[in-house]
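I wish you would study the pair of lines that follows with an eye to the fold:

===
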Amino acid sequence: MRSYLLNPTLKDHTKFIREGRCMQKASSWATVWPPISLALLGTVAEKWGPVCLVDGDVESLTMDKLLADMRAFAPELVVVNTGFPSIDSDMEIAKRIKETFPETLVLAFGVYFTMLEREAAQNYPFLDLCIVGEPETTFNELLGSLNEKEPALNRIQGLIYRDGNDFQINPSRPLLEDLDSLPLLDRGLLKNERYRLPHNNKPFTLINTARGCPYPCTYCIVNTYYGRKVRRRSLHRILQEIRICREKFGIQEFLFWEEVFSLDKTFVHEFCQALIDNRWDIRWAATTRVTALDGETLALMRRAGCYLVGLGIESGCQSILDRARKKQTLEDIRRAVVLARHAKIQTMGHFIFGLPGETKETAEQTIRFMLDLDLDYMQCYCAVPYPKTELGELAKTRGWICSEKWSDYDFGGNSILHTDTLSREDVNYFRRKAFRRFYFRPGYIFKKVFRDISLRQMLRLANFGDWMNFVGLRVGTNHD
């Protein structure tokens, strides 16, 4: 089985991050991420035949060039990586591929198909196959079945397949218990040198350390995609992957990718001590919860090379945090930021405007809280009512959703929620205001340009301004 895996971005088109539950414009992070989930599927496919992986985010692809490359490779199966905000362009490209190579099977996977299932498939009837949920085991069984004389697609859990003019929806697949049973990612499928950090232009990569999150946040899609049970890869496998990245590809910068990195203190301490003992001298970042940090753990993380922690803060209003079932307090947030600062680890706070209960007053309160925290970096988003989330169900029931386009379900885009207490225009206004107040403070600019990073590095971050939408800070209502 000849498999062609595609991260579908064409030349001069918007670049997107399509990595697990993270779906947004690449400018949100001022850089593109390596599509490690797509590459892991490529690694699975290598067992069954030749594999080609093309990432349009880092390759200059026109449609004609893409089709010519496919014609030369002659795939039997094309796998298309997707996300909610990119789904229109993803499927436009998938349709062209199917029209050009009608005998080639076209498969799509990602959160979009997991959340919408039959509706997602019926929206794009030219597709042959879709995967719902974690894709690796389903994909492996599919390739095995396709290699048989009479494929038994109806027996593959987690698969949607076209049957005549309709789609058959197979039962869902249980989550994979043993992540170490997955093959070690073949990073030779990726052009690793092209994924670079915006502030220092050094190659970096993601390493997935665990899947799942036990917390019940109403707006989050993680529980649906990865489940509430935390399933962790073994320390041995993670270290093995780091070693390969360093020795074979010269990568020294990492994002350790999971929802709550410091939830399991025993793992974090063993992991950090292993990095120290190996003397690898890597630099890394991770995302965690403010309630999962302590001074001893942060100090060890710093010794092991951690320079940045991302914190899910979301709001500066306790009642909104409580309604979102965030299970943290404003004091927890303050404490975590102070602890990180004492450990000399930089902080990036993540905020969401427009959650249920948000008003103009609470939005202003969040901005004041954000500024008082003295974070090093900040990102903020508009609440998105994704299907199969508590927020999505509430918004649908209340009639809050202002868009019928699935591509507008963009965590890094404009608001599509008009709640009982705040309009979508107001949500967009306060999100832009937060960026402007945070990043345009004279003291902040002086600190970053003259102390923390060079002017050249600051200019590399210029794409970040595209996402901030500083220009045109106006809405249809009056604001102070």
Summary: Confidence is low (pLDDT under 50) at residues 461-480.
